[in-house]
Amino acid sequence: MSINDLPVLSALRTKMQWHQERQRVLSENVSNSDTPKFRPRDLVEPKLDRSGAVTGSMGPLALTRTSGSHMAPSGAASGFDQNKNAGFETRPAGNAVNLEEEMMKAASNQMDYAAATSLYSKSLHLLKTAIGKG
Known about the structure:
Strand content: under 5%
Number of strands: 2
Order of helices and strands: HEEH
Largest sheet: 2 strands, antiparallel
Distance between the termini: 19 Å
Radius of gyration: 20 Å
Strand order of the largest sheet: 1-2
Number of helices: 2
């Protein structure tokens, strides 16, 4: 077993990769703040199990109702309110990027990335100390 196969290190690497990709998506949102009809995007945070593997990221596809005359799927919620961006302001050109909100997300993402990086380096240092090389 390699030192890189440890679940905690694998989970931290996955988390750091997610933060890097999220930073890219948030940067695209900011750079398209003047693009007409642009909708901001964000990533869903991965859920990790005890082994550090990603779980639940690709759940089963939900049934959608494309016409009001279709039957609702069993067990579905009473409404189809999938618009999670309801709080966004939309300009007359159709752009829904809120720069203050995007900057807050980017700052939060950067702090979480720094925390994951710090945990990763401290975990490696602890392992090196445990085997007598640190």
